[in-house]
Amino acid sequence: MILQKLRDLDDHQVDDHRLDAILLDECQDYSVDEIDIIARFSKRIFAAGDNRQRIYKQNGAIDKLKKICPSVSVLTYHYRNGIKICRVADGITNLVGSKDGLEATAQYKEADAPSQVLFTDPDSLPDQVIKAVASLQGQLRAYPTGMLGVLCPRIEDVKEVWDLLSGTHLRSDIQLQLSTTGYSALDPERRILVGTIHGAKGLEFRALHLLAMEGIGKFRTGRTRLAYTAVTRAKTSLTIYRCGALIGPLQNGEAALAPPPASIDLKSLFSG
Known about the structure:
Layout: H1 2-7, H2 11-15, E1 22-24, H3 32-40, E2 45-47, H4 61-68, H5 83-92, E3 116-119, H6 125-142, E4 148-152, H7 155-166, E5 174-177, E6 192-196, E7 205-210, H8 223-231, E8 234-240, H9 248-255, H10 266-270
Helix pairs in contact: 3-4, 5-8, 5-9, 6-7
């Protein structure tokens, strides 16, 4: 309805609201119709996006922006994710060892804060929270200025996790960001953010706990992009919890951490 009302504005009405410039972040998640409308309100558009992190059904926004923006720059390097986190993300997208993978283009200072990734054994959700709490209390001290994240794929799991965390000694450190209760400005005094993967799009965490991750299997489409987006929210520490079996993309991510097989001595194959 809003899009249609904006389409109905004549040129004089648009002129009354024209902006000097518009910046679109996470532009991969806009619709083509939204890009068309936005372009009416400014001749200068700056946009940043990554199709690997597209987590909604809309598609084509980046291709549309390439047609209407006079220049396109591909950012070669990134600085957010530690090497082990990059390797999991590359496993999810089948880019392990590729020049196009995150590991190959990482400028993260691994020596300053070594990255770590842990895939836990299956546990009930309450037991996952107990394990997460044990880690979070240490991470609050280890990363005194960084945000920490506790995310789930599904809203119902987030609500249960929030209730469980609210009954712990971390209750004064947590904040809930959820579409059903309303998003608000982040509270820097409450450094543990609880929410969904969708709701954390565009955010980053020094340490991230992904709970009930078997829930990604409930999404019919976009599972690989959702898993990739979830993993790449983590900067230094990533822990992935589950109640049941992980789906393909996350299985591939876990396999990417395995050491390469020992090289074979060809002479030994033909000896004797």
